[in-house]
Design a protein that fits this description.
Chain A: This is Spermidine/putrescine import ATP-binding protein PotA. The complex is a heterotrimer. Chain A is an alpha+beta fold. Chain A contains 9 helices and 20 strands. Chain A folds into 2 domains: 9-231, Rossmann fold, CATH 3.40.50.300; 239-380, OB fold (Dihydrolipoamide Acetyltransferase, E2P) (Beta Barrel). Chain A has helices spanning 47-55, 97-107, 114-123, 139-151, 169-186, 197-203, 221-226, 231-236, 375-380; strands at 9-18, 21-31, 36-40, 62-67, 70-71, 82-85, 157-161, 189-194, 206-211, 214-219, 241-251, 254-259, 262-267, 280-285, 291-294, 306-317, 321-328, 331-339, 352-357, 363-366. The two termini of chain A are 37 Å apart. The chains are: A alpha+beta, B mainly alpha, C mainly alpha.
Chain lengths: 381, 266, 308
């Protein structure tokens, strides 16, 4: 492993504007060498533009791009030690697989490419297909050619622009693991752009969630999921139930909130908004963290748990779990996922229930944001 | 009734084939009459089988000269129109610039103009300039009316090309010149070839514009026109048949070669 | 971090689709310059010369001078309105016939030809490579007075009908309007078939199945689904046929008689034989203006602006 940090990507204050439209607001970002970094967001959020500025295909309106210690901001793409796996692959249709993979080597004046190309094709298990044209390969094979074509150049950083977008679900899963394996093997920095939150979380060490040309939050997948700091992140990554609540008092490390007549407890450390008594906060809880108890058994719920009452509006059985929609006074579409371990036959639509969860799983967000940010986009994805 | 059902189901096919027959009938006649031995000066009525004209295709005064002149003009017109047209097509697809719609109209208009209007106006220009009518005025005219067709053919191809391909080339260490030569040009090639082929056919076959601007120069279509008045030698049919056969053979070979190449690679 | 700005509605969702910006701002102009210069000098400028010639008076011996003599236009219209009318009606008839004949063939190639598709395409295009004059002359043989076509039509009494309609004269087809329209149709048929085929080929075959699934009979499917979807091809096909057919004089000259002269014949004669340049220029200008007017109205009404 190299130790000169030449595989770091440092973006300082880069932005991109088209006329009056700002695609990327001034952005600082450091991707450490050897990491698998994902830029996640809905289409039009600026993630692809950011990637293209690293590749050199787009010139930043301001700011600089550094690879290690080298300032590459004004270098054209063909002079940057960076390669891209393009969306829908952009394999050259007039060249066969071998020549596609050899393209970068030949352009750099390397004469004997045969051995390298063959080795690379073996790595992606396409040795047999060397003389075929791209259109004769399946989507998954084309994708592997695109990866091989980029990797053979030993780039400092590999950029992947929605590399799995064109594949079907099963193949996508398979390629996610495959890419992860290749990244571990070659050890170079991967910067991966995707709109698929599951893909980002499966593959990346670090995920930056982008929205409206800004990075909303940056962190490890688990951190982003458990501690979202904005409603967009809470809704875009998985599903969140968000309730508006009023701050009642502070009690040690906890904040006590009032919502719909009941009291909820939120650890101070998990609240990203300033909480002053009388102020508003959005309380969030993930659906799988909630337990559901029939109203008749309400007494059996242990003390100290946050609880809400409601009525089951809908229940769908999906195998590993059952997903309920609960109509409650504070929120009319409360999502609850219950593992199918012991099913309570009384939990059918119309039943009165108590929802309860550990205060430690509660998070608090600034109430000034749109409560449904990131939800429609998620539906599209 | 099964016959009626059959007829109903295949009505389109029958109608289409009849149209095809209508399209090909004159070529059949041209071919058959290339083996005729006409009585008078005109080759319109069947008399007697003869291969005389095939044995002596250049036996008519001035005909082969006009043929060679037409081929030369068609060649240079193709070169000129393809070059200029391809450049315009690239500019139109790849760049944003002022007066785009004016440029588009200027390219569309020659295709939407009856030939006789272009022919007449071009002649007015040449007369006003005092230009010597002949090879050069014909060539100028042919490049002018072929240009638009090349633009359309190349533009369609370049527009359907994924811009990411060129980005991929630049990403893979190809500079601007390399990108153009290794990626852009090969991918645009079928469009350019189609435009060139069309130019050649249009130029070679043009009569109306040529007739106005040729002066005393005689191209092959003008020779045929003149012979329609003076008498049509059988050799005209020989040339017509040969051209048809060459064209069909050319296309068939390129198709067979293309198929075989694809099969080998598969 | 909060959301302060919603993305603009015209956000470039996929920046890759835009024409890339290059550093050389002048590059497009250099690319355009030679070709456009050619078109300006040898296409646009001649139009202006022609406009100027049409309002000149004088004689070949003494030379011509611009006198703004617009009466030339009036005289040209008065003298040659039958030829204008004839041009438009012959061209319209030929265009209608082309559509009628060409559609089934285009449909056949697009949907029914299977592995014969390429061969039929070649057969449609290949005649292009034989000089159209030679092929037009072949119609003289086909439609000859003693030929089988005239004989058959005669014995079926079709010629009596067409004679009564004024399309043919007596027992002849040659040297009649029918022969000219037949030649025009033949000459411009490929210009109808190719655009029709292009737009038919783009239609997803499953649309036919969907229409059938939704209780449309084949004919209804054609009227409600296939034909509307092929409209771009119909529009460009009719234009590509009608425009050159209107200005054509070859068919009228080779297959017609003095009674079938079209406006192209008049312009040609005025220009090349009578050498009355102002009249010829005026006629040509009227033809151009008329066609541009018709084309514009037609394109507007059919709603297909994107022909280039």
């Amino acid at each position: 492993m190299k130790t000169d940090n030449s595989g770091d990507v440092r973006l300082s204050g880069i932005s991109k504007t088209y006329g009056s439209f700002t695609a990327v607001h001034p952005l600082d970002l450091t991707v450490p060498e050897g990491s698998f970094f994902a830029l996640l967001g809905a289409s039009g959020c600026g993630k692809t533009t950011t990637l293209r500025m690293i590749a050199g295909l787009e010139e930043p309106s301001s700011g600089t791009v550094h690879l290690g210690d080298q300032d590459v901001t004004h270098l054209p793409p063909y002079k940057r030690p960076v390669n891209t796996v393009f969306q829908s692959y952009a394999l050259f249709p007039h060249l066969d697989i071998f020549e596609n993979v050899a393209f970068g080597l030949r352009r750099r004046g390397i004469k004997s490419v045969k051995k390298q190309v063959e080795e690379m094709l073996e790595l992606v298990q396409l040795g047999e297909q060397a003389r075929k044209k791209p259109h004769q390969l399946s989507g998954g094979q084309q994708q592997r050619v695109a990866v091989a074509r980029a990797l053979i150049n030993h780039p400092k950083v590999l950029l992947l622009d929605e590399p799995l977008g064109a594949l079907d679900l099963k193949l996508r899963r398979q390629m996610q693991l495959e890419l992860k394996r290749i990244q571990t093997e070659v050890g170079i920095t991967f910067v991966h752009v995707t709109h698929d939150q599951e893909e980002a979380m499966t593959m990346a060490d670090t995920v930056a969630v982008m929205n409206g040309g800004r990075v909303e939050q940056l962190g490890s997948p688990a951190d982003l999921y458990e501690n979202p700091r904005t409603t967009f992140v809470a809704n875009f990554l998985g599903t969140s139930n968000l309730i508006e609540a009023e701050v009642d008092a502070k009690n040690g490390d906890d904040i006590v909130l009032r919502a719909g007549g009941g009291k909820l407890v939120l650890p101070q450390a998990r609240c990203s908004a300033p909480a002053t008594a009388g102020g508003k906060v959005l309380v969030g809880i993930r659906p799988e963290k909630i337990a559901l108890t029939h109203a008749d058994d309400a007494g059996s719920i242990p003390e100290g748990r946050n609880r809400l009452t409601g009525k089951i509006a809908d229940a769908s059985f999906i195998g590993v779990s059952t997903q309920y929609v609960i109509d409650s006074p504070v929120c009319d579409e409360f999502a609850v996922y219950v593992q199918n371990v012991e099913r309570d036959g009384r939990l059918v639509p119309g039943a009165d229930v108590v929802l309860h969860w550990s205060p430690a799983h509660t998070f608090g967000l600034d109430a000034a944001q749109a409560i449904d940010a990131g939800t429609e986009e998620e539906a599209d994805a | 009734m099964p016959f009626v059902t059959w007829l109903k189901r295949h009505l389109v096919v029958i109608a289409g084939l009849l149209t095809l027959a209508y399209l090909l009938l004159p070529n059949v006649v041209v071919t058959v009459f290339s083996f005729n031995k006409p009585k008078g000066r005109f080759n319109y009525e069947w008399q007697q089988f003869s291969t005389a004209a095939w044995k002596d295709p250049c036996g008519v005064a001035d005909m082969c000269g006009s043929l060679s002149l037409s081929l030369q003009i068609a060649f240079w017109a193709t070169v000129g129109a393809t070059l200029l047209g391809t450049m315009i097509a690239f500019a139109l697809v790849r760049y944003r610039f002022r007066a785009r719609s004016a440029v588009n109209s200027l390219i569309f208009l020659p295709m939407a103009m009856p030939e006789v209007v272009m022919a007449a106006s071009l002649l007015t220009l040449f007369l006003n300039m005092g230009a010597q009518l002949g090879f050069w005025t014909i060539l100028i005219a042919h490049i002018m009316f072929c240009l638009s067709f090349v633009v359309v053919a190349v533009k369609a191809r370049v527009m359907s090309m994924d811009p990411r391909l060129e980005e991929a080339a630049r990403d893979l260490y190809a500079g601007p010149v390399q990108t153009f030569l290794r990626v852009t040009l090969p991918i645009a090639a079928p469009g350019i070839a189609a435009g060139a082929l069309l130019s050649f056919a249009l130029s070679f076959d043009d009569f109306i514009i040529t007739n106005f601007n040729a002066g005393s120069t005689v191209t092959f279509p003008m020779f045929v026109w003149g012979s329609a008045q003076r008498g049509t030698p059988v050799q005209i049919n020989v040339i017509g048949t040969a051209m048809f056969l060459v064209a069909v053979l050319f296309v068939l070979t390129s198709m067979v070669v293309g198929n075989r190449r694809n099969k080998q690679k598969a | 971090m909060t959301l302060t700005e919603a993305p603009a509605p015209l956000a470039p969702a996929e920046p890759a689709k835009k024409p890339p910006r290059r550093r050389g701002r002048l590059t497009p102009y250099w690319l355009l310059l030679p070709g456009l210069l050619w078109l300006v000098v040898f296409f646009a400028l001649p139009m202006i010369y022609q406009a100027s010639t049409s309002v000149q008076t004088g004689s070949l011996e003494d030379g011509y001078r611009v006198t703004w003599h617009f009466a030339t236009y009036w005289d040209a219209l008065v003298d040659y309105w039958p030829q204008f009318l004839r041009s438009v009606s012959y061209a319209a008839a030929a265009t209608a016939l082309c559509l009628l004949l060409g559609y089934p063939l285009a449909y056949l190639i697009a949907f029914r030809a299977g592995r014969w598709r390429n061969l039929i395409m070649i057969l449609v295009i290949a005649p292009f490579f034989t000089s159209f004059l030679i092929r037009t002359l072949a119609w003289k043989t086909i439609l000859a007075d003693s030929g089988p076509v005239v004989h058959t039509l005669n014995s079926l009494h079709v010629l009596d009908l067409t004679d009564w309609l004024g399309w043919t004269a007596g027992d002849r087809v040659l040297a009649t309007p029918l022969a000219v329209v037949c030649g025009l149709t033949y000459n411009f048929l490929p210009f109808m078939i190719l655009p029709l085929y292009t737009s038919l080929e783009r239609i997803d075959g499953r649309l036919h199945e969907a229409a059938g699934d939704l209780y449309a009979r084949p004919w209804t499917t054609f009227r409600k689904v296939t034909f509307p979807l092929s409209m771009p091809g119909v529009v460009s096909g009719t234009l590509l046929t009608f425009i050159p057919a209107t200005g054509d004089y070859v068919n009228a000259e080779l297959l017609g008689s003095t009674d079938t002269r079209m406006i192209g014949n008049v312009i040609q004669t005025q220009f090349l034989r009578i050498l009355d340049y102002p009249t010829a220029a005026a006629l040509s200008f009227i033809l151009m203006a008329g066609i541009l007017l018709m084309v514009t109205v037609y394109i507007r009404r059919s709603g297909t602006e994107d022909l280039v």
